[in-house]
Amino acid sequence: MPAERSPRTGRADRPGRLLGLVVVVLLLGLAAWTVVGLQPPDPRPADAPAGEFSATRAFAHVERTAADVHVAGSPENDRVVEDLVGTLTGLGLDTRVQNAVGVREGGAGEVRMARVRNVVGVLPGTDPTGRLYLMAHHDSAEAGPGAADDAAGVAALLESVRALTAGPPLRNDVVVVLTDAEEACLCGAEAFAASHPLAGGGVVLNFEARGTSGPPIMFETSLGNADLAAAFADAAPHPVASSFAVEVYRALPNDTDFSVLLDDGDFTGMNTAFIDGAAGYHSPQDTPERLDRRTLQALGDNALALARELGGRDLAALAEPAAGDATYFPLPGSLVRYPGTFVWPLAGAALVAVAGLVLALRSRGVSSLRRTGAAALLAVVPLALAPLAAQGLWAALVAVRPGYAGMLDPWRPGWFRVAAVATVLAVVLVWYALLRRRVGPAPLAAGALGWLAVIAAVLAAVAPGGSYLAAWPALVGALTGTVSVLARSRAVHVLGAAVTGAAAVLVLAPTAALFLPALGLSQAAAPSVVVVLAALALLPALELLFPDPEAGRSRLGAMAVPATAVGVAAACAVAGLGVDRFDAAHPVPSRLAYLLDSDRGEARWVSTESSPGEWTGRFVDGPGSLGADYPYLTGRDVQTGPAEAAALAAPEVTVQSDEELGGRRELSLRVLPRRDDVRLVDLTVTVDGGTVVRARVGGRPVPDAAVGGDSLRITFHAPPADGLQVGLTVEGEGPVRLRVTDAVDGLAGLPGFQPRPEEVDVAGVHGADLVLVTETTDLG
To answer: What residues contact residue 116 under an 8 Å CB cut-off, 6+ apart?
Structure first.
C-alpha cells in the first residue's frame, strides 16, 4: 500500500522505479507460469506401457469415428455403432446396443424426440459397491465429422478401458455408455436413464468438447460436490477445475448428456470438456487433423486416473450428494480446495481486513474516511468501463473484419486475447494516472480493495463457488496494505505490493485464462471482469512504476505507464489481424437455409446471420418473418430473400384411423418423408377451440407436461425409413390441422444456389445448411 512520501527529485526516484519494474516483471512471469501450467502435456507414443493412456493409440479411434459426418440415424452413424461394439467386445466387455426412442421437453407445448442407438458395455468389478458410468456421445453434429465433439471423448474412454483391462480388476462395475443423438436433443441419454436396465444410479464421468484444443476442464458437478471434488483433486494428473465455472454453468441454459442424468435424480458425478479452438466447433473443420493430441492426452490421463480411483472406492457414499459444495481453483499441477463452509468466514474476513486498512490510513494521516470513500466510489469507473472497452475491442475487430461477426472466437485468438487484457489494464491505468495525484495512491488502492471485498460477499450469497475470486485478493491486499501503512517502510511497502500482486495473479490469472476461451472474445466483457479485479488488486505493485506524486513530475509523465498498455493493446490487435486471416482451412462461417412452403408453392432463402456476409448477402435481402417457427429457425429475427421453388416432395401424411371414443377423437397417422436422407421431421398439431390431450410418437408417449393446450409441436430426429407413427387424442369439435416439415442437410443442387467460395464454409450452428419442406394437412 503506497505510503506518504516526501518530495524528491526524479533522479532519486529512479532506483525505486527500477525496483518497481522488477516487481512487475516478476508478477508478469508468475502470471505466465500459472497460464502455461494449465496447458496439456505432450502426447504419449503408441508403444507407451499397456497400463498407461496413449493419445497416439486413442487417436486411431478418433480417425475411425470421425471419418465422416455421422448424425443420429445416418448410415455413417450405424457404421460407428458397429465399430464401437466390436472394440468394446474385443476388450472383453459385455456390450449391447440399446435401440430406443428418447424424449426431451423443449418448453410449453414443445417436445424433441429421436430414435437412438446407444452403445453400452459393462466391465464387471470384483466386489462392487456401486456403478461407475463413463459417458460420451458417439454422434456428430450435422455440419462436421465431430473429431473433437465428441470422437475425442469416445476415444478417451476406449483407450482408458483398454488400459484398465491391462491392469488388475477394479472393485466396482464400470459401465461404458456411448450415447446417440446428443447433438439433436440429448435423447440418447434420456433413453438410457429412462429405460436401460443398467441405469440404476451411481457416479457418472461425462466427457465432452466445445472446441478443438486447450486443457480439459472439469466444469460441472452434481450438487453437494465436496467428496467428488476431493476425489478429483487426489486422482486427476491434470486437475484443471474451478468452482466458479460450476456456478456459472449452473446458471446457464446449456445442457449436455450429463444434465439429463442429473435431472434423473439417481446420479452424481462430474462433467469435463475442453473449450479452446471454438472456431472449429460443430463445423466441417472439426476434423481429426485439427484435434490437438496434447488435449486428447490430458483428457485420457484424467479419465483413466479417475476411473481407477473411483473404481476402487466405496461408491455408495459418492453416489449420494455430500453435505455441501467445495470451493476450488487451479494452480499449476494442483488444485486448491477447501470446504464451502469457509466461504462466508473468508468473505467476512476480507471485509474486516479492508475496514482495518481504511482505519489504518486514517490513523496515520494518509487518507481521511471521506477521501477513501470517494476513492471507492471512483473505483466504479474502471469496474464498468474496462469490460465495455474489451467488448469495444471486439466490435472494432468486427468492423475491420466483418467475417468475425458470426464467430464466438477467431481462428487464432492468441494475440487478440492479449490485446483484450492490455485494453482492460489500459483503462484501469488511465483512471489511476488521472486520479492518483488528486486523490492519492493509497485511498485509490484501498477503495478498489473495498469493492473486491464487497464482490466477495455478494458472490458468497449468490454464487458461493466464485467468492474466492475476490475474497483472497481483497484479504491479502488489505492485510499487507495495513502492515505497509503502519510500518512506513519502503522495503515493507515493496514486499507488500509484491505479495498482494502474487495473490491476485495466482487466484485470478488462471481463471481469466480459462474464461476468455470459454466465453470467447465475442463476449469479452464477462471474462474481462476477472481481469479488472486482478488489475485493481495490482495497483500497489503498479504504483511502483509511477513517478512520485509529490516530486512535481508532470501528469504527462505519469501517463507513460498507461500509454504503454494502450500501445501493447494496439500492437497486439494489429498482430492478431496479421496472423488470423480467413482461408480455406480457416473459413468465414456462413448460415443459410432454404424453406419451401408446399401449400403456397413459394420458397425463401433464410439466414440467422444478424449481419449477413458477402456470400450470404447474395441470397437474402433484409429482415423478414417466416410467420411460424421451423426447426432451428424462428418466425422472427431472420434475414430472408426470394428463392425459386424447387421440385421437392413434402412428407406424406396418411390417416390410418379416426375414431370417436368417450367424447374424444383418437387419430392414428403415419408420416412418411419422401426425400432421401431426411434428418428430422417437425410436427405441429393445432386444434381450433380444442385441446391435445395425449400424443404418442414413434412408440413413445409424449410427456404429460407438454400436452393440454390447443397446440403441440414435436421435432423427431432420425425418423424411421418406413414412416413415423403418430397417435393423437384431442378434445373439442374444432378442426385439427397438422403442419409437417422435414429437413435435409446440404444446399447443393437447389435452383439459384451458388457454391461458397473457398474461404467461406458452413457455420458450426444447427440449421446452417438446412433444406426444409413444409406442408399443412387438414385432418377435419
So the answer is: 72, 98, 99, 100, 101, 102, 179, 180, 181, 187, 188, 191, 718
Question: What whole-number distance in Å separates Cα of residue 162 and Cα of residue 659?
Answer: 56
Give the model's pLDDT for residue 217.
Answer: 98
Q: Are 315 and 175 in contact (CB under 8 A)?
A: no
∠ CA 91-93-99, rounded to 5°? 120
- Cβ neighbours for 447, distance < 8 A, ≥ 6 positions apart: 372, 373, 374, 375, 376, 377, 378, 379
Inter-residue contact 92 to 694 (CB < 8 Å): no
User: Which residues does the chain have with pLDDT short of 70?
Assistant: 1-16, 548-557
Contacts of 15-20 with C-beta under 8 Å, sequence gap 24+, read: 16/490, 16/544, 16/548, 17/544, 17/545, 17/546, 17/547, 19/494, 19/544, 20/494, 20/541, 20/543, 20/544, 20/545
Residue 338 CA, chain-centre distance (Å), reads 25
118-149 pLDDT, tens digit each: 999 999 999 999 999 999 999 999 999 999 99
Say which residues have a Cβ less than 8 Å from residue 587's Cβ, sequence separation at least 6: 285, 756, 758, 759, 760, 761
pLDDT of 555 reads 53
**Assigned CATH topology for domain 55-331:** Aminopeptidase (3.40.630)
User: What digits encode the pLDDT tens for the residues 289-307?
Assistant: 999 999 999 999 999 999 9
Cell of 353: 481486513
For 401-437, the pLDDT digits (tens) are 999 999 999 999 999 999 999 999 999 999 999 999 9
What residues contact residue 125 under an 8 Å CB cut-off, 6+ apart?
169, 170, 171, 172, 173, 174, 311
Pairing between β-strand 622-624 and β-strand 593-597 as defined by DSSP bridges: unpaired
Q: Position of cell 498507461? A: 562
Tell me which architecture the domain covering 589-780 has in CATH.
Answer: Sandwich (2.60)
How far apart, in whole angstroms, are the C-alpha atoms of residue 680 and residue 671?
A: 12
Which contacts of 316-321 are long-range, i.e. CB under 8 A and separated by 24 or more positions?
316/129, 316/130, 317/227, 318/130, 318/203, 318/227, 318/228, 318/231, 318/268, 319/130, 319/201, 319/202, 319/203, 319/267, 319/268, 320/224, 320/268, 321/222, 321/223, 321/224, 321/225, 321/268
Please report the pLDDT score of residue 549 as a whole number. 56
**How crowded is the C-beta side of 355, counted as CA atoms within 13 Å?**
7
**pTM of the shown model:** 0.94
Other beta carbons within 10 Å of 305:
19
Which amino acid is located at 763 in the chain? Answer: A
Q: How far apart are CA 358 and CA 145, in angstroms?
A: 59
Task: Let me know: does 672 contact 656? Beta carbons within 8 Å.
Answer: no
| Grid coordinates belonging to 644 | 425459386
Contact 208, 425 (CB under 8 A): no
Integer Cα distance of 743 and 320 in angstroms: 43
Identify the CA nearest to 116 among candidates 97, 144, 95: 97
Q: How many CA atoms lie within 13 A of 510 on its CB side?
A: 30
**Rounded CA separation 50/182 (Å):** 31
Determine the Cα–Cα distance for residues 667 and 683; give it in Å rounded to an integer. 14
pLDDT score for 420: 98
Residue spans of the domains in the chain: they are 10-18+369-579, 55-331, 589-780
Contact 180, 118 (CB under 8 A): yes
- The closest of 774, 762, 594 to 69, measured between CA atoms, is 762
- DSSP H helix total and E strand total for the chain: 22, 24
The owner of cell 480411483 is 309
One-letter amino acid at 126 equals T
| N residues, the chain | 780
Do the beta carbons of residue 208 and residue 136 sit within 8 Å? yes
Half-sphere CA count of 187, side-chain side, radius 13 A: 28
Q: Pull the grid cell for residue 47.
A: 508403444
